[in-house]
Amino acid sequence: MNTFTPADFDFTLLDDGFCIDDIVEQKINELSESAEVGYNMTLLDIGGGFPGSDDSELKFEEFTAVINPALDKYFPADSGVRVIAEPGRYYPTSAYTLAVNIISKKVVLEPVKKLPLGMEHVAFDDITNKRSGSLMYYVNDGIHGSFNQVHFDPHHAMHTLHKKHQQDMLKYPCSIWGPTCDKDDCIAKECIMPDLPTGEWLVFNNMGAYTISMYSNFNGFEDPIIHSVMSRTVWERIQQISAEGLPATVE
């Protein structure tokens, strides 16, 4: 069995004039040539890692638009090779949204310095000895729980505020930390948020893949509680099916 995953799509090559089409076709072509050296391949596993959310840098449709033509070219239906994939990330990613609670926070005072690009609008205290403030938020989940992939995939920690705040509300450089005593339990090192009170909620979308399935109870913290939520339209449809049964199949 041969396999390749999106990790094989070395995006550094894109700067050298290569495109994803070139890389995928090269990989699949290499596999198809295995028969020429006496290897009778019957199963091709193209791996996984396919994005399952609309905010990913590369969309699922962009992968399939490249992979499918290459498979048709080098492994047509009559080739005798069974092609499978591992869409373990694709299916559950958008099915779960994680809400974490701010259990503590810390104000860190630092000498005023030039802020990174995009952070120029944040507030700082120009009165107290020319020192600027940043906030450290501690929440009730971390890298030993639902954020175990954050060091490998920083996009995992893209949060939104539970409540809408006024546009002119002052915002500060912040970092978000998990609840354990581990110095590496950092969910987000740099972000911009208002001064939020303890007890406020942060929401992380697209948290279905490699989160609760890899959760640990490190330092005695319990698994997050899962609540099932659906739209009113879906709920009414389920009630209708429960009462009337599934609609007849149209041939």
UniProtKB/TrEMBL annotation:
Signal peptide: none annotated. Pfam families: Orn_Arg_deC_N, Orn_DAP_Arg_deC. The keyword Phosphoprotein applies. It catalyses: L-ornithine + H(+) = putrescine + CO2. Residues 94-208 form the Orn/DAP/Arg decarboxylase 2 C-terminal domain. InterPro entries: Ala_racemase/Decarboxylase_C, De-COase2_C, De-COase2_N, Orn/DAP/Arg_de-COase, Orn_de-COase, PLP-binding_barrel. The keyword Coiled coil does not apply. Keywords: Decarboxylase, Lyase, Phosphoprotein. GO terms for biological process: putrescine biosynthetic process from arginine, via ornithine. Belongs to the Orn/Lys/Arg decarboxylase class-II family. This is ornithine decarboxylase.
